[in-house]
């Protein structure tokens, strides 16, 4: 089970928006002091070029107006120094003080050392002069006392002089204050009061202060106001407490409603109450996060989830700061969403942000750091970069083993992830090794009936499925299903996942009834849990569509493929790998219908998305190249087919190495092109390359190995080496019967191929025996109205025709035509081909029964020029012609046209054809490049052709 998300408390944190809290900016000025000169303000000078060093940040310079600013991440900051040549700080301690961030500017006062010393001395002289004047006044007052004795006066004078001796500290303190005072920062009232006090004009200062009213009364009023405020604050705090209790109670009700609706799978209503709870406190990161998570996972409403995750991230940064556990969790969860959306570049960006914070906050060997490594590995795995994926998965494993020991669920998770990468690489031995390690841990810790044990069973089943061991795959998938149904009940997403996996095995096994049943079960559960428009439901729609396609019900297949595409586009937009998958599946349906133009259209759409999202060197891009190559091959454009197959091969070899099953597939496809081109030596070369890889990776009893044997047999068959062809066809059959049993479409293919060899050898009884076996399987698997059944009817018809049993041949051709008209319509190329076959059989019947003239009354022979650089094309021929003569054959000849064609193969011949009422004669030394056929026409059309032909002969043969 892949770990995407970190947990805090009981809440899984999932955030989307890439945002950071805006750092506050502290403004300030560097200046000299403002002064009072003769009672008037003399403003200080703004100083430019001062260097202000802020702890933890780069230094800033004051501008021409003395202004400076710097960002502050927290609530406080500290200065390290303030420097300007020729100046010093008025307050030396200003450079080591902690300041609170404020909207008010910070004033830093600087003066030249000489000016500062002069200010200090001037302040001290002024204070001493004022104190001397006060002393003289006091002495005179004491001497003027009339009722006091001289002894009493002397005592008072001694006390006065003692007080005067204690004034030195007062003088120093006051001098320092006045020497550092910036009058610019005082309002006009206190500027005058301070000036009067500084100059010893105390009576004027007292008078000015009293203009503001009775100070005692003011203090009493303030104290009373303070008491009132305190009482109001108590009331407010009580109201806040009640409010918080109300919020908590309403939140509990919201959550209970959510649980009730969730139990009924009414997800819209469940989401409503989670969102309602989140609205109660928009600073509660847990409530916001839970709402976002539900909207994300159950409603797949990524736009709304994005808004919630944005709020969570903002609150996380405001409340806990950048270098915090919550911030790292937020970045991690944003990365997870981008990963799910297929934006792997953005996913990596945010996963690495989370990793960097976690390493700083927790150190390099913490479980959360391992989670980041794991998530990064998952992205690389999705990108097809398996080497990087393994690198990060092993980093995660090393931390987890060190922190938790070797028998912990998180260690098992790492084993599972590593195993799945090895499976994707085709290294199934290593894959099973690591998945089995995970299973052993899970069983030891949880026992045999735990969801994590089911996950391990599921992963092992996946490896066996990739190996083609479908019996073992089903065994482990059913083990997983049994646990999940027991633990979760029968309507849980994990149960649906098991049904999907089981359905896939049945699909590969050719058991389409069971495949469809399990896919439909999965879809039903998923739709009930997630609603109809969720990507998980779309996956099931895609699977169901593939089954209908395999059954030949292309209308139903297309219906489900379009449903899946509609959901994917609605949820993800138009540029997502899941959308590309839907395009790909729809393209495959069109390809099976023989609509190569539409198939190519959808395959190219899929390719464009994959290249945009995954880059140009991803295995999924190679898959699209293979599909496009297949269409070109079907169209006979072998040069283009080879071009795309080689592109796929280059990607697969670069990404997956030279011995991966996907590389073998590319070799196989390239071999197929050479086979169609008639270059059997090259075809065998590439087919054997594919076989060698498959035997090395899968062993000797795998369906893909059987496919290679089958293809090699096909080449030998076309070379006329029927003994070697039969040998390889039998090898393929042997594997397929072991793997699939006796009722699988691939087994039917082997029977058909063996029947073909017997037919070519003239052993029609054996041929019909194997064709009969093929027909029995296809009717059982596909039903009686499937194109593959029709194809076999046509093949059986050809055997009966070769035996001369034209009645039987006509019967089977008629069955094939009926299916094709039903499935493809009357104008499909395959349907037209079958009508031609029926006409050929009727022609042979007319020859054998001596009724040729009757047949010729409403049939004509045709020669359709094939695509490519052929001799017929070189002579300017194109399209369909009426064939009138072929060598020594004419329409009335008792010898079959098709037998005559065989006689003239590789020899010179003349043909006479007619098109658009124009008759022409053409000579060919060897091949022509035309497909011979017969079609029905109206009798008057037939007569018209005869008249033109007779007229031509009269004018050209005399």
Q: Mind explaining what this structure looks like?
A:
With about 950 residues, the chain is of the alpha+beta class. The strands form 5 sheets. Strands 13, 14, 15, 16, 17 and 18 form a 6-stranded antiparallel beta sheet that branches. A 4-stranded mixed beta sheet has the order 8-3-12-10. A 4-stranded antiparallel beta sheet has the order 7-6-9-11, with no helix packed on it. α1 packs antiparallel against α2 (about 150-165), α16 (about 450-465) packs antiparallel against α17 (about 470-490) and α24 runs parallel beside α26.
Keywords for this structure?
alpha+beta; 38 helices; elongated; four-stranded mixed β-sheet; single chain; Immunoglobulin-like; Pdz3 Domain; 958 residues; disordered N terminus; six-stranded antiparallel β-sheet
- Based on the structure given, which CATH architecture of the domain at 850-958 is correct? Roll
Query: Largest sheet, if any?
Result: 6 strands, antiparallel
Annotation field: number of helices: 38
Give the DSSP E fraction (strand runs of 2 or more residues). Answer: 5-15%
Strand segment tally = 18
CATH-defined fold name of the domain at 850-958: Pdz3 Domain
Helix content: 55-70%
Kindly provide the name of the CATH class of the domain at 850-958.
Answer: Mainly Beta
Span of the ends, CA to CA: 87 Å
In CATH terms, the superfamily of the domain at 850-958 is: PDZ domain
Low-confidence stretches: 1-22
Question: Which value, in Å, is the CA radius of gyration?
Answer: 46 Å
Which word captures the global form? elongated
Task: Decide which structural class fits the backbone.
Answer: alpha+beta
